[in-house]
Give the backbone structure.
Amino acid sequence: MRAFLQRLPAFASVQDRLSTSKLIATYVASLIVFAVALAVRAWFDSVLPAGFPFLTFFPAVIICGFVFGLRQGLMVAALSGLSAWYFFISPGRFDFSIGTLLAMGLYLFVVTTALGLIYLLTSAYRHEIKAREEIQRLAEQQEVMAQELDHRLKNIFATINAIISLSLKNASNAEELAARLRDRLTALGRSNLLLRGLREGEDATLQSVVLQALEPFAIVGTPRFTASGPRVPIGGQTVVVLSLILHELGTNAAKYGALSVGQGQVSLTWTIEINDSGAQELVMVWRETGGPAPRPPEAGSGGFGSTLMKRVIAGVRGHTDIIYPETGAEVRLTLPVDMLRPAAPPA
């Protein structure tokens, strides 16, 4: 039934506007139907009893309204009413007697009812199409969300696995291992809560990720911490990666660096730069001052923080540079701009 209706111009125009040539063709076809109805009525005029002036015109109005459209049906209804009035009710003139007016009133009632039903039918068809399109859109959106959730869960479990493995290597006892895992998994959870709070199509900003990741260290909004840089939207797994790295930088600073003493300060700046190949990169610089002089790790060794940063940031095609001047540790993170809002989370 649907395929049949879609072939009719009246219903095809519900989805797509008819071209000018097709629209003209519907009016021409409607005039042909009217002409046939008029010819047939005139042909049988001599054999029909009085009282049937609209006999062939009713089907013509219904056919044109249902097949070609409501406007075409109205055109045929007007032409049919005038023709019946002039040729068959009072031949050769327009009679305004009570009987004639009653007959024309009956005709108007019938064709109005028929065209009204056709209008309701096309409206129902239009609403059904919209409902089907909305159902299809929701189904596609659900599929996309399911795929996104699948990707995100895979990345989360991979990150948790890396956290556990690296924490085991760097923990001296069970209590320390439990504390480290608790802090790092909490940071991971906060980053995912940040992602979950976004509406569809939105991205987190780099500043919001920074403030969320460093909020547990009680330095956000104090003179001990400054953050500056352009507004940079990020999304997907990059939010998780940066949240974990910033949390680890804050943890190291609180234990061994600038945040371990009262007068220590941390500054974080970020810029968009062009590399040698002409591609845009996000460059973040974490700089500590006022704390104890940092002790560079021995060659071939590295704690959880440096290992995590090098391993995890490589998953978003970035890299890390760490130096240890006398003023305090300095970490430089570089990420390709096209990975800040990836179409699919990186593996």
In short: The chain has two domains: 2-136, 171-339. Residues 28 and 72 are 9 Å apart (CA to CA). Confidence is low (pLDDT under 50) at residues 197-201, 343-347.
